[in-house]
Every structure is written in C-alpha cells, then in structure tokens.
C-alpha cells in the first residue's frame, strides 16, 4: 500500500527544516568562513525565518502552488548563491506537483529530481565541482531507483541520506571549482563544502531524524 | 571597527532612505526601495543599462545610476546579491523598448539571480543581454579569465556603456563596445585591514598589524600573497608589473588609470601611488589619457587600494571622455 | 594604523608630486611645489582667493583650487601651517590687481603665517583681506565665537567667495558675502578612532574601543564629551540639537547641509546620518536646499563624521548653486 | 670694561641651542601632547636642523643680517605656532643689530626686548595667557634692568633665567588661553606650557649651562 503525503505533512517537515537551519547556522558559517565569505549562516537564518512564517500562514492546500510561491519568497529574502539555488530547487519541486493536495512517493522522487536539475541549470556546475550537487545528485538518484524498485519510503530515504553524506564526504578532499571558494584553489582541499552540508541537514530534517 | 549605525538589520534600508532624501531630484525607486532607477527612466529610444550587487561598496553600484551612465540598479544586503525579482523590477522600469544590458561583477549569487531576472524579463518580451565584469587579475590566471571577479574596473565599463547608449547605440553596439572595453581593463588590489559586515559584527578576515594581502578582493576574498607591509613604491611597482604583464600594452598606447581607495585609506596615499604609477608608465612609453583618483568601489572601512588600467582606442577614448552626471560621479 | 607610504618625511611632497602628475591641465605651482595655484592664475579682473593649511585633510585645502572656487593654496606639512613666504608666493601669483582674500581655518600657526604674508604682500602693494573660518561650535561657546576652530564649513565659505569673485564682485563684496555666509554656518563632528601623522608614527590620541568623542576637531582636538558609542540616530540628534541651538534658524528657513566623513567612515554610514538629519529638519519646518554627502574635509584615516548647517538667503543660494570645477569638487 | 660678543660667539651659542633642542624634542612633545597636538618636538627638530646647517654655512660677519636671514629660513622650515614665533623673535632681534660685527650687552638687552615685542605682536597674546610670553617677558625685563644697572653679563643672564623659570612656573596652574591648548580649557591647569619651556631651554643653552 502506497504512502500518501498530505499538505500537513509537508508543512511539518518544512518546520523541522526551519528549526534545523536555525540550529546549524553558526556551524555552517564556520564552514563558509574557511571556504567563502562566511555569510551562509545569515542566509540560513533568513531562509529558516521565511519558512517558518510562510508555512504558518499557508494551508498547503495545493502543495505544488504553495511550494512554487515559497521558492519565490525565499529568493526575495535570501538571494545569496545557496539561497538562490535552494529557492530554485523548491520552485522546481513545486512545479512537479502543481494542483495536488496529496503526493505519492513517486511524486517525491520526481520532485527531488526536478530540484537537482534546477540547481544544475541555475548554477551551471557539475558533479565533482564540490558543491551542493555532490550531495543532492547521488541522493536523488538513489531515492528514485529505490522507490522505482518498490522499496518503502523510510528505507529509501535513509539510503538517500547515506548517498548524500557519502557524496559530501567524497568531495571534501577535492578543490572547490565553483563560486567564491574556487578563488581559494588549493587551500580548499580538506574543507567540507557548506552547501553540500546544507543539503544533508535539510534531508535529515525532512526525514525527521 | 566602530560604526555610526543603528540596528544592523536596517543598515541597507536606512542608507537607501538617506539616499532618496538627498537625491530625489535625480533618483527614484520602483516597487521596493532596493530598486534604484534614474528618475527619468525609461529614456525613450535608449538602450537601458542595469546593474546590481551587494551593498557596502559605495559609490558602486547605485552611485553610477545617472546621466551618461546607468539607468538602474538592484541593491542587495551588505555583500549579498539582490533578488531576481528586484532585478526584474529594475529591468522593466528601465526598458524603453530597445532592450536592457546587464553589467555587473562576476559573483555566483549575482549571476544566478540576474540570469533568472533575464529569463523572466524575456518572458515579457524584453531583450536582455549580459556583460560580466571580470577585471581582477588576482582571482584567476589569464587562461581562466572568465572565472575572475569583477572589481573597480566595472566603473569604466559603466562609463563606456553609458556613453554608447546615450549616443544612441543599439543593444548589439552597446554590448560590443562594453566587451571590448572590458577586454582592455585590468585591476589589482592590496588590502591592509579588514571590514566588518554590520550583521556579522566581526571582521571579514584577520590580518597581522604589519601584514598586507596583495590581490585581495573587495569582499575580502583571498589574494595572491600575504606578507610584510612594504613601501608604497614597492607595492605599486609589484601591482603594476602584474597588471602590465596581463594587459600587455604596446609602447605609445594610451591608458586611463584608476587609483581606487577601498575605504579607510586617505586620498593623500592614493596620490602618492599615482605619482609612482605615472612614472612607471612614462618609463614604458605609455601615456595617461585620464586619471581617476579617489574612492570608486569600496569595501566599507577596509584600508587598501586598487589600481585599474584601461587601454584605450579612439572610440573608447571618446566614450570615456563623454559627459556623465550621477549623484556620485560627474564628468564634463 | 597602517599606511601606504614611503619615507614619512616625503609624504607631502610625494602626494603633491602625484597631484601635479594627475592634474597638470588644471593646476600649477609657483616657486615651490607647496604653492598650488590655478593654471590660469591670475584671472584678469577677478579678486584673487587664497587659502592655506596643513596637509592630511584632502580635499581640504588644495582640492578647492579651481574654477568658481579658489585661485591658490599654500600647503603645509601634515597638520602644520605652510610658511609665510609660501603664502606670499601664492598671493603674488593669484593677484590680478583687484586684491586677494585669504580664507582659512582659525589655527594659531596659520593665522600668524598668513598675517605675515599679508603684511609682506602689502609692502608690494597687494590689497589683502582675511576672513577666518570659525565654524566648529564644539571649540568655544557662542560668546567666544572668534576663538572657534575652522572645520568642514570652510568648504561652503570657499564656494560662496569663489562664486562671488567669479561673478566680478569687488574685494569688499567678496569679503562681505563670505563673512555673511560664515555667520550662517555651523559645524560639529564626532570621532570614533584616531589618525596617525606619518612623521609621528603613533595615533594622535587614544580612545577606547567602545567610546566616541563628540565635538572633536579635525586634528584630534578635544571635543565636548567622551562617552560610550551610541546609535547613529542618537548621535545625529544630539549634534543637530547643538547645531540648531547655536544657529537659531526660523521655521521655513532654507539650509544647505553637509555630512562629511573624516576618513575611514563609509559613505553608507553618512547616508544613514543624512536620513535622520533630513527628518529632524523636516519636523522643524526647515527645508534642505542642497545636501553634500561625502568626504570634504578629512583627518586622514580617522573614523567619524561632521555635520555642517548653512542657512541660506537668496544671494547665498544663488552663489551656492553657481557652477564650480576643481579636480576634487564639481557642481554644475 | 664692557663684554663684547663676536659673530663667533653668536654662532657657538646657536649651536648649543641646536643641540639642546634636539635633546629636548621628545620631552617637549610629551608636554605638547597634554596641551596641544604633540608636534612641538617635530618643530624643534626642524629648527635645530636649520640652526645647525645655517650656522655652519654662515660667517656671521654682519650679525644682524645673519640673524634676520636665519629668522626667515626658520619660518620656511618650521612654520608651526612656536616655530613662527621664534622665527619672528630672531628676525626682530637681528634687526636691532643690523650691520654690527660685534654686539654689546646693551645690544643684547635690546635684542631680547625686540624679540619679546615681536612675539607679542605676532601672537597677539599677553602675559597670563600661558604662552612663551610668560617666560620671555619677565626674563627680558630682568635682563634689561640689570644690564642698565651695570650688573655683569653673567649675573644678569642667570637672574634673567631665574625670571623665565619663575614665569613659566607661575602660569602652570592657570588655564591656557591661546592657541590649540585654549580649546582644552580646565584640563590645561597643572600642565607646563611647552612654549614657555622652550624659551627656558633656549636661554639656558645660550648662557651655556
Ligand atoms: N554555481 C553553483 N552551483 C552549485 N552550488 C553552488 C554554486 N555556487 C555556490 N554553490 C554552493 O553554495 C555554497 C556557498 O553558498 P553562499 O555562502 O551563499 O555563497 P556566496 O556567499 O558566495 O554567495 C557552496 O558551498 C556551494 O555548495
Ligand atoms: N598666539 C600665541 N602667542 C604666544 N605664544 C603662543 C601663541 N600660540 C601658541 N603659542 C606658544 O606655542 C606653543 C605651542 O606651539 P606649537 O606646538 O607649535 O603650536 P601648534 O601645534 O598649535 O601650532 C604654546 O605652548 C605656546 O607657548
Ligand atoms: Mg558565502
Ligand atoms: Mg555571500
Ligand atoms: Mg601643530
Ligand atoms: Mg603643537
């Protein structure tokens, strides 16, 4: 029997995301200070605040429409690199389920895939550039495959998280090739990419662990 | 670093508030206060010129909105990109039907947001073209020029594009001449002290009391080397060597020079640098057509300076000489 | 404070060297490089205007030598008066036969030297008049106005005198209108950090990390009170209260306002101050005719700002609006 | 029998003054830091350097003419308040003995008086304003009186020095009323006036103690 995810479920998971971003703001900033300009904590706080107020006001009747709107509001409030990429991801994920009051695990897989493609298009970066993509792309692939194979939501999610963490760790030793961090060259080797870490944190809090 | 501010969250809107109180005869905003435009925008028959970027660099970016320069600017938080819909609002307001050219510095957040704005504008049948400023030679080697950051050299790009548009150039012509200008523009900076983003409250980087960072970017991005502070002449010579090598001018070439203070460095010190630059250029049989010495692209209270060289041809010369008038920059 | 300099002893001459390399089309010097004059001086039929003072305040003083402003300036060492014969050389070069007016800040060394220069000039049949700038209300109570220091308000005095002379005013008329202008000009400053005279090598004063000095002069002279740093709005209100009390404008009066950065304070912060100033004036039914926001009279890398209010009548308004063009200041 | 002072004597005493100013530059700066802008040491170093090079080059054939020239050169090289006042003093003293190859004690008294009046005219300050005048004026008066009474040069000089020191000390407790120090008001009470101290140092080194 297929799991069905309601607007209420989506709202609850977004509130968990908001809490997690608030909590991890300083930690993420410390990563961005090594690799970039140290503002990622400010961005995450802005996103967390936006999530909380938007989710509180919105019924998520039409899940897709609400997500598209949420994406736009996030861009307005947090237009840094990672903020813009996350807003693009949410907007693209929303478009996949426009008009839906409930979504299936198949929808979820399609949403993750759309988010992944959206970020790739917007950021023009690829696997191995040491960005959020290196966590998001493998997670999306794992999730889609497993859901396709009929694995249940919980197991598929946990495996996807594992892929995200592996992806994040795989690039830690590499040089950043995109964005501010790329100007640091050699000195980025061994530093965790803050954007990849953001995706892991978001995925964890969506799953609810 | 101590600041004359109120709540850090209000830094940008209060600054913009003061701006519109001071310059309401020349500037206007559209939709929200972060969308700064010429009061008379759109100018009929003229290609629109828009820029955007983070706050904390005055006169960059909004300071170049005005006659003979830009038509509009989307203003972000300190050192942060404005949003795509802010840039879209600016785009719509400055479009007179002849299309809009975006000219801005090559930073990830800005590129993504302005690309989004351009896509949205095109849905509304506005022809948008983008010219990225990548003049900071310290940020990537010549083979990877497209990865370079945009710094003070963007002011020359604004000037050239602004004059060409004001003279009735088509969108292709404006883009073409601005790209040609940029291919002849090189900048390099040196920083002696950091600045503090109001909302962060601590310096963007730390640097020893007797150190300097050659090649540092205008948000405190890493430079080429950090070492003991040297004499002005020595620092200037090193930066000039790097710039001339990258630009590769020929004897007899005509240049414009900008010596730009990053914030805390006094004008007196910029003139000392310029004296040395002039001598070095003269030695190499290069002529200075115009010198711009002052604060054109800052990093709040950072101490340091950048040097920009701009090799001119005849058209670029006459466009550079064309008059311009903004609340922050005028030339007649 | 770290500086981009060479040998401290050469600070002023190297700075002047750079100046003449950059602006040889507009500026010249006479006898020695410290005697800066308009290239076209003397201007036939025009009263000559000269100023002088220490270095370290750019654009003050020499930055206001140019069309519609001053004819010449004698430049001293950092924060030190030029000599009487330097001022005399400037005086001779700018005199077209209609006499020369000295306009400068009320500091002992300058007064003595320029008085000497005036006496020597008179021996050569040059009619010299002196107008002292005493706009800093923090330096003495209203009853002892003549003891007050001259600070940023001198830029308005230069502007008014310059326009009046350019329009053909006699020496009496130039002196008269400049004195009337000055009786309507008041300035007050706040400092957050000190500056360092290159030859001294240590800061001119010390101040705690969380303190400010309200009323401090542009060489670090003592102000009215040193206390914990407050919000920009609060500081601005306090300075405005003191200025308005001293100036005593009536409802409906028209003012020019200058918000002047002392060196390290970013333009963004000056605009935040201006927003508050505008609101306070509007509340009191006072109108702003023109706002000047930027660095007009600095103390090298000192952090802080000053506010100048200038009450205008009809003649002063039209003289203020008159065009001016110097390498550091232009208005059309 | 009257003492006669040669150009050589004048040169020697000026070299002593130069040495004393070099030596006391930092001390004087420390006084000016309390009362003014702390540049008096720079000024004294400039004057000392000027004295040394001028005196080395000049024969002091015509004592008056040499002193007048020296005054002008000092103004050119050290035009601060105290520098300008000292240059005026030297210039005025020189005018009194123009064309003289030797000077008498009576000439010396007249020179000191001219210097005193020159500084008063140029600086427009009066006794009690807490300036160099408060040391110079009483010293000049004492010296003139004693020389007039036929007291010998040595004794008259020592008494004049005593008057200068007393004058300097008399105003230390007062408020400065002139120049930069005047802006400090109350806070100047108890601080030695650097200009008065400069005169004491100069007088001592002229005397040769
Ligand atoms: N073009 C891009 N494509 C994908 N991810 C990117 C791109 N640029 C930046 N990122 C991600 O964003 C993170 C930095 O975000 P942020 O601090 O907002 O950047 P900035 O401050 O430079 O605007 C990086 O760690 C990286 O994961
Ligand atoms: N108008 C004046 N008349 C007499 N002496 C003065 C006058 N102004 C200043 N002085 C003397 O000069 C001293 C300060 O000299 P200086 O440091 O050169 O001043 P500033 O740095 O303000 O130009 C004071 O201690 C005082 O004795
Ligand atoms: Mg960042
Ligand atoms: Mg950023
Ligand atoms: Mg002084
Ligand atoms: Mg002094």
Question: Could you explain the architecture of this structure?
Answer:
The complex is a heterotetramer, with two copies of chain A (209 residues) and two copies of chain B (332 residues). Chain A is mainly α and 209 residues long. Chain A has a single domain (5-207), classed as Serine Threonine Protein Phosphatase 5, Tetratricopeptide repeat (Alpha Horseshoe). In chain A, 70% of the residues lie in helices and 3% in strands. Chain A has eight helices and two strands. In chain A, helix 2 (40-57) runs antiparallel to helix 3 (63-77) and helix 7 packs antiparallel against helix 8. Chain A starts with a strand and ends with a helix. Chain B is α/β, with parallel strands linked by helices. Chain B is built from eight helices and 14 strands. In chain B, strands 1-2-4-3-5-6 form a six-stranded mixed β-sheet, sandwiched between helices. Chain B has a six-stranded mixed β-sheet with strand order 9-8-7-12-10-11. Chain B has a two-stranded antiparallel ribbon with strand order 13-14. In chain B, strand 10 (254-261), helix 7 and strand 11 (287-294) form a beta-alpha-beta unit. Chain B is globular and about 55 Å long. The two termini of chain B are 37 Å apart. Chains in contact: A-B, B-C, C-D. At the B-C interface, helix 1, strand 7, helix 6, helix 7 and strand 12 of B face helix 1, strand 7, helix 6, helix 7 and strand 12 of C. One magnesium ion binds at residues 32, 36-37, 39-40, 180 of chain A.
Q: How is this fold's topology laid out?
A:
The complex is a heterotetramer, with 2 copies of chain A (209 residues) and 2 copies of chain B (332 residues).
Chain A (H helix, E strand, L loop, with lengths): L3 E3 H29 L4 H18 L5 H15 L3 H16 L5 E3 H19 L9 H16 L4 H20 L21 H14 L2
Antiparallel strand pairs in A: 1-2
Chain B lengths: L10 H13 L3 E4 L1 E7 L9 E8 L16 E7 L5 H11 L5 E6 L2 H16 L4 E6 L20 H13 L4 H12 L2 E9 L17 E4 L10 E4 L3 H16 L6 E8 L5 H17 L3 E8 L8 E10 L1 H8 L2 E2 L4 E2 L1
Parallel strand pairs in B: 3-4, 3-5, 5-6, 10-11
Antiparallel strand pairs in B: 1-2, 2-4, 7-8, 7-12, 8-9, 10-12, 13-14
Helix pairs in contact in B: 2-3, 4-5, 6-7
One magnesium ion sits at the interface of chains C and D.
């Amino acid at each position: 029997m297929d799991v069905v995810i309601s607007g209420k479920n989506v709202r609850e998971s977004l509130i968990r995301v908001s809490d997690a971003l608030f909590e991890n703001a300083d930690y993420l900033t410390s990563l961005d200070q090594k690799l970039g300009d140290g503002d990622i904590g400010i961005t995450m706080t802005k996103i967390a605040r936006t999530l909380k107020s938007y989710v509180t006001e919105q019924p998520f009747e039409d899940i897709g429409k609400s997500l598209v709107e949420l994406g736009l509001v996030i861009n307005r409030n947090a237009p840094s690199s990672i903020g813009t990429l996350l807003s693009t991801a949410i907007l693209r994920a929303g478009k996949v389920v426009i008009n839906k009051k409930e979504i299936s695990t198949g929808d979820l897989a399609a949403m993750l895939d759309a988010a992944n493609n959206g970020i790739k298009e917007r950021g023009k970066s690829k696997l191995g550039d040491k960005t959020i993509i290196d966590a998001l792309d493998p997670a999306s692939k794992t999730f889609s495959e497993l859901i396709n194979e009929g694995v249940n939501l919980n197991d598929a999610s946990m495996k996807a998280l594992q892929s995200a963490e592996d992806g994040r760790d795989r690039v830690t030793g590499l040089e950043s090739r995109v964005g501010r961090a790329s100007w640091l060259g050699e000195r980025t080797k061994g530093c965790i990419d803050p954007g990849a870490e953001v995706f892991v944190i978001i995925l964890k809090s969506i799953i609810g662990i | 670093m101590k600041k004359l501010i109120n709540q850090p969250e209000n830094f940008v809107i209060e600054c913009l508030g003061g701006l519109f109180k001071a310059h309401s005869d020349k500037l206007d905003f559209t939709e929200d206060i972060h969308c700064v435009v010429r009061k008379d925008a759109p100018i009929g028959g003229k290609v629109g010129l828009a820029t955007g970027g983070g706050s904390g660099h005055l006169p960059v970016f909004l300071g170049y909105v005005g006659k003979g320069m830009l038509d509009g600017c989307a203003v972000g938080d300190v050192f942060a990109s404005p949003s795509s819909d802010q840039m879209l609002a600016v785009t719509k307001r400055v479009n007179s039907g002849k299309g809009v050219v975006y000219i801005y510095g090559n930073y990830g957040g800005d590129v993504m947001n302005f690309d989004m704005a351009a896509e949205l504008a095109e849905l509304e049948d506005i022809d948008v073209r983008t010219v990225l400023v990548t003049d900071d030679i310290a940020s990537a080697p010549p083979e990877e020029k497209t990865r370079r950051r945009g710094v003070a050299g963007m002011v020359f790009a604004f000037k050239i594009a602004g004059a060409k548009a004001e003279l009735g150039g088509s969108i292709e012509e404006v883009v073409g001449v601005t790209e040609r200008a940029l291919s002849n523009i090189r900048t390099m900076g040196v920083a002696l002290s950091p600045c503090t983003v109001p909302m962060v409250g601590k310096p963007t980087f730390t640097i020893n009391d007797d150190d300097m960072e050659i090649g540092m970017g205008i948000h405190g991005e890493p430079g080429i080397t950090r070492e003991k502070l040297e004499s002005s002449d020595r620092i200037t010579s090193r930066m000039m060597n790097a710039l001339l090598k990258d630009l590769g001018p020929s004897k007899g070439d005509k240049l414009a020079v900008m010596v730009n203070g990053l914030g805390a460095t006094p004008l007196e010190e910029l003139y000392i640098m310029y004296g040395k630059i002039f001598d070095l250029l003269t030695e190499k049989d290069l002529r200075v057509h115009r010198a711009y010495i002052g604060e054109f692209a800052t990093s709040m209270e950072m101490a340091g300076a950048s040097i920009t060289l701009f090799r001119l041809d005849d058209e670029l010369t006459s466009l550079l000489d064309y008059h311009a008038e903004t609340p922050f920059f005028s030339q007649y």
